[in-house]
Amino acid sequence: MTMETRAFNPTPWLGAFNLNHAIEVSGVQRTLYLSGQTATTAEGVAMHPGDLVAQFQAAWDNVKDALVAAGMAPTNIVRLNMYTTDVDAFMAAAGDLVPIFAGDGVRPVSTLLGVSRLYDPAILIELEATAVA
Questions:
Q1: How far apart, in whole angstroms, are the C-alpha atoms of residue 106 and residue 121?
Q2: pTM
Q3: What is the pLDDT of residues 56-84, one digit of tens each?
């Protein structure tokens, strides 16, 4: 059986963010749950303090590294949750952030969550994903 996905979008507004309202997945052989990925070095040191876009890119690169390690690609992502300490800054930068994952062919379901802080006060964004294959 081949994996298939089907998107459901009862309203069009999430399309501006390259997101779907819902995704149905069938024929799945494997599911990969990725814990929150941040802009950190291999030693866990925060990178790009104060730069939300650079932190998003670094966190996204860490998501892709985890996918590759599991034998998957960004296009296997069906859910991408985003945690940020500054929702207003995230929304203001959305035009720069969305192309980072959209450029890899990802159109997931997603939840944007504003949090008071992440594990390190210098970290502004954390990405959590689910991928299927």
A1: 29
A2: 0.90
A3: 999 999 999 999 999 999 999 999 999 99
